Amino acid sequence: MRAVKSQRRCIATGEIHDRSSLLRFVVGPNGELVADMASCLPGRGLWLTPRRDILESAITRRLFTRSAHRAITTPSGFADRVEALLVQRCLDAIGLARRAGLAVAGFEKVCEAVRTGKATLLLRALDGAEGGRRKIRAFGRGMPVAIVLTAAEMGAIFGRDHVVNIAIGDGRLSDRLIAIAEKIAGFRLGAVIDRGVEPAPDQPARQDGGIGSR
């Protein structure tokens, strides 16, 4: 089956997916493999399922070289570099939400955002306590949850040593963050993505208003 314009074929699995769910790589001018996080760099795209094992296998099997039909060098620790780039992209998006008044941190503020219907996505720290995770989940039943960042990474966004809970209050930004988080989950052990459930037809959808405003 031929991929349509918005879809691409993974060079490792042969499966066709929407391009937004795949990682794009290009070959730099010096012949080095480059991860194109924004999918906008010039050159022919080499698309891959966002999983550490698939990336490492593709490097070992020289699939990038075969697909590009040219010699390619891969930097040492390339999978770690890709993970770091994905994490930074996620942190940048959350930081943008915070500056726009669309993100709050801390258990009480997050619970309040959920109770008032101002949260569209919950972010939990990978190293957060399981008890707190269950409490937040009870408040936000059916709401999308992403557990892919550490408490230290989340804390840095808010100028703190660590943050365990974050609520995002914009639906479009939440969709973007979920897409990034799903890619990170392919590289981090213990990461969890739960897209939640859609509201029933007779139930009002959550609003996309800023959760930092009243």
Ends apart, CA distance between termini: 51 Å
**Spatial order of the strands forming the largest sheet:** 6-9-7-8-10
- In CATH's first tier, which class of the largest domain applies? Alpha Beta
Question: Approximately what portion of the residues adopt beta-strand conformation?
Answer: 15-25%
Overall pLDDT, averaged? Answer: 89
Shape: elongated
How much helix is in the residues? 25-40%
Task: Indicate the CATH topology of the largest domain.
Answer: 60s Ribosomal Protein L30, Chain: A
The CATH homologous superfamily of the largest domain is named Ribosomal protein L30/S12
What does this structure look like?
With 214 residues, this protein is an alpha+beta fold. The protein has 2 domains: 7-75, YlxR-like (Hypothetical Cytosolic Protein, Chain: A), CATH 3.30.1230.10; 81-194, 2-Layer Sandwich (60s Ribosomal Protein L30, Chain: A), CATH 3.30.1330. It has 7 helices and 10 strands. It has helices spanning 52-60, 63-68, 78-99, 107-115, 130-139, 151-157, 171-185; strands spanning 7-9, 16-18, 23-27, 33-36, 46-48, 103-105, 121-125, 145-149, 165-168, 192-194. The strands form 3 sheets. A 5-stranded mixed β-sheet has the order 6-9-7-8-10, with helices on both faces. The chain has a 3-stranded antiparallel β-sheet with strand order 4-3-5. A two-stranded antiparallel sheet has the order 1-2. Helix 3 (78-99) runs antiparallel to helix 7. The protein is elongated. The N and C termini lie far apart (51 Å). Mean pLDDT is 89; it is low at 199-209.
